[in-house]
């Protein structure tokens, strides 16, 4: 008698194929679900494989458009970067994938969901927090945290033997000595030979970007148009080619960035569960958008609003990394960030060349830049005497602070100017 129905987040790989058969052994009816979020995958082959292994139903879901519009775009608006370097390509995909998994579970009346995330990583938390937020009654089967499972499958050799015994097709090509996760936003590489943080990444590791050394010897110049903080059009200035739908825009930026080796990083980061890990990432399109959005935002946003928004962006990145996309606090922060983007509108021209993104210029109907006011050659309506009061007020505040810190500086005020002397 069946223990119930479980919706398994399925990749078609060795691990989740073994989990599928193991769940059936344990007495569950298994529905497999595979999300297309831009990874290179033979989805038809994966479907046939799942059916041959006894899946009750197989769902192949194309989530690419909603992944860009509902998850990548808010991250662009936030300038979301975790620990100053990581653009969160894996983190931002998980709430998108898990949301559809829960929708299928509810639709099919499944009492359980399952995933193949390791017990040492962040993804188990990201998947499960999303599942509990959207379907509080659901029960989660996480095989890599169940002793009966992980003691049985200590290494890849055990999985291979189990696969051969149960007729699970095994890979015919050697497995790369690292793990990889790919989607439209990025590819990540970790574990295996990369666990030694001193080891250099092999040259053949990168799949999404060329080496900057092998990139074209002439730049690609792009114009990216933003409205409310999200890109609405990208144009290749020389070729005249343009894209104006979210999925097409992001795919095209990946193509250009990949051609020039943009967006490669090799970092050690702090996992939410309390350990440091080494990750290598390729994020070509996301890196181009990060630089372009940062530029147009600074050009159009009030200074004090942006100061607050920067703090919210850091907080948003932490919540996204830790799996709290569907928490009330993350929803609140996203709302505030979205509000801050109302005037972030205009065009940025940039050059993409041999691993770098160079800003060339910008324009906006909502610019807060006043060329006449800032000009050193034109007086305009600006009275230099107006600066005196501002300087004195801030200097007095600084003097008060410095006296408390015993800082060795003195301020001398004279009419119309301020001088600072070291003691």
Automatic annotation (TrEMBL):
PROSITE patterns: ARGININOSUCCIN_SYN_1, ARGININOSUCCIN_SYN_2. It comes from the Eukaryota. GO terms for molecular function: argininosuccinate synthase activity; ATP binding. InterPro entries: Arginosuc_syn_C, Arginosuc_syn_N, Arginosuc_synth, Arginosuc_synth_CS, Arginosuc_synth_type_1_subfam, AS_cat/multimer_dom_body, Rossmann-like_a/b/a_fold. Its EC number is 6.3.4.5. Gene3D superfamilies: Argininosuccinate synthetase, chain A, domain 2, HUPs. This is Argininosuccinate synthase.
